[in-house]
Amino acid sequence: MASLISREWYTIAIFGMVVLASILPIGGEPAEVFSVATNLAIALLFFLHGARLSRDVVIAGMIHWRLHLFVLVTTFVVFPILGLIVLAVPNLMTPALATGILFLCVLPSTVQSSIAFTSIAEGNVPAAICSASASNILGMFLTPLLVGLLFHTQGGGGFSLEALEGILLQLLAPFILGQVLQPFLGRWLSRHRTLTQFVDRGSILMVVYGAFSEAVIEGLWHRLSATDLIAVVVIDIVLLMAVLLFTFYVSGWFGFNRADRITITFCGSKKSLASGAPMANVIFAGQDVGSIVLPLMIFHQIQLMTCAVLARRFASSAKAPAVPEKAKVV
Prior knowledge:
By secondary structure, the protein is an all-alpha fold. It is built from 15 helices and no strands. The chain has helices at about 1-5, 10-25, 30-50, 55-60, 65-85, 95-105, 110-120, 125-155, 160-190, 195-215, 220-225, 225-255, 260-270, 275-285, 290-320. Helix 5 packs across helix 13. The longest helix has about 30 residues, at about 160-190.
């Protein structure tokens, strides 16, 4: 039991923030101070992302352009199309949750878990590093653009200049500064991964607590029914299963080898809570951020559990001895 808690402490902590916000939501002047601290933590998070990302890794991985293109198309084209198809069903969920589902579909892939699962499953790890990193970098541009395009299509009013300014100043500028300083800080940060993990995960916990505190004060749990929650869980599962099948089988039709198909499956099916929660906090400032990030939080847990099982199965099948032709029964 203790071992399980040790491995899954972050997942427990995320839901712990939701429980804490439900019992002791922060409001008033303390909430304003906490919001400033959260914004600073988000800026530091993206600065560290830029400072950690080696340019050599990006350049080395770019030669496998077909794999990266497949992952990017899945992440920023196939996923949004599936989201639009789901939301075409009328009266499926509340407007805020529907916004959250569509926002989930336009987010970039994860970095750490995509690489970790690819490694466990014995896929193409260098390609996974480059592909997941490229997805996150491009996501800072593509996610706001897709939000503007798709939410305008859905009658959401599009993407405001104020939100764009927030993305540029709070996310992109720190990332670029981190890239500029990467030659000086990259090795030091590699030796101090605990620091970067603390900022990475701590900033997300702050976003979740702040967003849900505001939502609870505004009556989130009175507006959200059990039916809404079940609908979100089912939709998240359907989206993940559809993309997992698409990435694995369609990549096979395109002639990718086993290692590349594993990389495409894990990199193409993920959605980043690390990027999504801070982006939601900026893009949807003043809106019901708690409800909007809820589908992403649930999807995050489902994708981790599902991909952990898949990675172990891929690894087991890779180690299984091949049956000699003469030993096969005709």
